[in-house]
Amino acid sequence: MDPALLNAPLSDAEIDELDRFLLYEPEIDDCMTLDMLDGYLHALAIGPTAVPPTRWMPRVWGEDFTDTMPPVKDADALRRIVSLITRLSNSIVARLEDPDGSMIVPLWSTFSDGDSERDDARIWACGFIAGMNLCEEDWAPLLATGQGRAWLRPIQLLGEEDFEPGQHAPTRTPADRERLSLQIPDAVLAIHQYWLAHRRAVDERHVAGSTGGKVGRNDLCRCGSGRKFNRCCGAAAQVQ
Fold first, then answer.
1. Strand 109-113 relative to strand 116-120, pairing
2. What's the burial of 161, exposed, middle or buried (CB within 10 Å: 0-12/13-18/19+)?
3. N or C: which end of the chain has fewer CB within 10 A?
4. How far apart are alpha carbons 73 and 59 in whole angstroms?
């Protein structure tokens, strides 16, 4: 892949291409949909530890899948899709690290409510929870704080089936779900800030232990993402 494209956001046509592939191509019943994938990648981007693609990619194809590539008829098409997923992941990280102001652009669903179209992040939130579950123990310190529970509550109400008694009451109507959905972007940015110092410490220990020496900020990251170290596992270390 052209290095200049590694962090480039997907075009509308590329988003549609990825959406169609995830819906129709893999011969796996529980492959992630586009909105679930986007929530999943956001959780990985803002979480407490950097998860390498070799660990997170199999979950895209199914909950119990263990290979980074699913069974498909067209291997070239699959490589193309993997490159789009990688770019989507990289672009999420790049937006969060933008010095001119971090932001998120979630790819979740909208539904008709009479004459209105309302945001509905239920499937996106399911993906976010799946991303948290990849390193569940690492998220525990945030869940132990009242502020952390408040940030995660709209995501858990929408995406976690057994979150709390009576959880379906605040998500019953399209208006209820939109109200919760629109709380998520600010919560995601707050969680991202919460984990920055922790990620810095973890990433520095990881680099020191796995490389046996210093990695240059413009060297390719050793986690396999294809990004430069300072745009991947070393990004948090740049924040003072």
1. antiparallel
2. exposed
3. C
4. 20
